[in-house]
Write a structure and sequence with these properties.
It is built from 19 helices and ten strands. By secondary structure, it is of the alpha/beta class. It has two domains: 246 residues, 3-Layer(aba) Sandwich (D-Maltodextrin-Binding Protein, domain 2), CATH 3.40.190; 123 residues, 3-Layer(aba) Sandwich (D-Maltodextrin-Binding Protein, domain 2). The strands form two sheets. The protein has a five-stranded mixed sheet, with helices on both faces. α1 crosses α13, α4 packs across α17 and α14 crosses α15. The longest helix has 19 residues.
Length: 387
């Protein structure tokens, strides 16, 4: 590709936007022939809408959001196919409750709160006690209806017997506003990506109960998403963008670059959170590159789809395997990664053979990708009729 191609790429101020920020700041996009304008967006709905209408060429994106858009789920109108040729990170999110709620949980179940990782059983006891007393439902926030965070919070609660659609109140709040809402008392807890959990803790407003790396070691989260039509129209630009972000991901994972990465991400035009919180979040087992973390894995897509089925967002009869294959494009990632050579990404040359994280969550229940619909129906709390 000769000359510079203009691209406008969106991001939400979260630690896992690092591949985009680094690729721009360190000149990796420019070295790949791309003139990239990064657009800091206010919410995931804005990201979805701007990518859909073409105001953004691509974006830092919630993986389930790409699946939902492609399937026409959630009352969004016509389906808009989006592909995910790069996973931007593993781990990084967490479930945090307000300091006052944490104190109430210790009061109702001190032994349960002393265990780690902490299950939602102390919360279940409190929810039941509040119900018998006629007290209002507790309010928890997630970043978007179709997100790892929503499914993480729902799964965690349901494992303890809490029905997230009836026993608590769920609201959607943009990531940067989570801490403010906790401070104002508008919510009692949230599930969000780094660094906002760390910010809540360092400000004395909240307490982390379970991290994504404890909920599901190597748990998937964000992807780089583009419209399928855009990818077909501009394959060279997409390949160049992927090469730049893979290089940036490798740089971000290098401990020698930690201080520089923290300084870069903490800038007001990027995340704008305190450097101390970002540093804390980066040490919280978030992975951008190592172990082929950038490979968009079909089994991750199928787990997301299983949760969409479980909570009644997608019919169990839908061809989940086809949907996963349509959105997740490891072939495009692999082509870009291997073109960089072993110096930049040695393990990427054998990405197919890279062993993925175990498909067993904190409750010990194993996920079999080939039986995603059956998995969705196996839980005591599910919206799926017996299969």
């Amino acid at each position: 590709m000769s000359g510079l191609a203009d691209l406008r790429l969106g991001f939400i101020p979260l630690t896992d936007c690092a591949p985009l920020i680094v690729a721009k700041a360190l000149g990796f996009f420019a070295e790949e022939g791309l003139d990239v304008d990064l657009s800091r967006e206010v919410s995931w709905a804005t990201i979805r809408d701007k990518v859909t209408v073409g105001a953004l060429d691509g974006a830092h994106m919630l993986a389930p959001m790409a699946l939902a858009s492609t399937m026409g789920a959630g009352g969004l109108g016509d389906a808009v196919p989006i592909i995910a040729p790069l996973a931007m990170n593993l781990n990084g999110s967490a479930i945090t409750v307000s300091a006052s709620l944490a104190a109430m949980l210790r009061d109702v179940d001190p032994q349960g709160m002393s265990q780690h990782p902490i299950t939602a059983r102390p919360l279940a006891r409190l929810v039941e006690r509040r119900k018998t007393r006629g007290e209002p439902l507790l309010t928890f926030a997630v970043v978007f209806t179709y997100s790892m965070h929503a499914y993480e919070l729902r799964y965690w609660m349901a494992e303890a017997g809490i029905d997230p659609d009836h026993d608590i109140r769920l609201v959607v709040t943009p990531p940067p506003r989570m801490v403010e809402q906790l401070r104002l008392g508008g919510i009692d807890g949230f599930c969000v990506g780094a660094p906002w959990n760390a910010v809540a803790v360092q400000e004395g407003l909240g307490e982390v109960l379970i991290k994504a790396s404890e909920f599901w070691p190597g748990s998937p989260d964000k992807v780089f998403g583009v419209k399928a039509l855009w990818a077909e129209t501009y394959p060279d630009e997409l390949r160049a963008a992927l090469r730049a972000m893979i290089r940036a991901s490798a740089w971000a994972d290098d401990p020698a670059n930690r201080e520089s990465l923290v300084a870069l991400l903490s800038r007001p035009e990027h995340i704008g959170a305190p450097a101390e919180a970002i540093d804390w979040a980066l040490r919280d087992e978030i992975v951008f590159h190592d172990g082929a973390a950038g490979l968009p894995r079909r089994e991750h897509a199928l787990w997301f789809l299983s949760q969409m089925v479980r909570w009644g967002q997608v019919e169990a009869e839908h061809d989940l395997g086809s949907a996963a294959n349509q959105v997740y494009r490891p072939d495009l990632f692999r082509a870009a990664a291997t073109s960089l050579g072993p110096t930049i990404a040695p393990e990427m040359a054998f990405a197919d053979a890279a062993k993925g994280p175990a498909m067993t969550l904190f409750d010990g229940l194993e996920f079999t990708p080939e039986a995603a619909a059956l998995y969705a129906a196996c839980f005591p709390i599910t919206r799926v009729k017996a299969i």
